[in-house]
Amino acid sequence: MPAEIYTLADFIKKVGISRPTFYNLKRRGEAPKYFKMGRKVMITREAYLKWIADSVARHKARTG
Q: What is the pTM of this model?
């Protein structure tokens, strides 16, 4: 079964963030793992799910 893959546009729409916010996350090392297909940024479903889990863990660590 092929992996589900999101384009950057699909990803930011799905999670409700802007493109600049994604690049700020990337700069801080908090963006999901991604790869490039030509000039397009692509994110697998697995990377998306891991990013959600990591984001929740970071939030819990900050708020206690």
A: 0.84
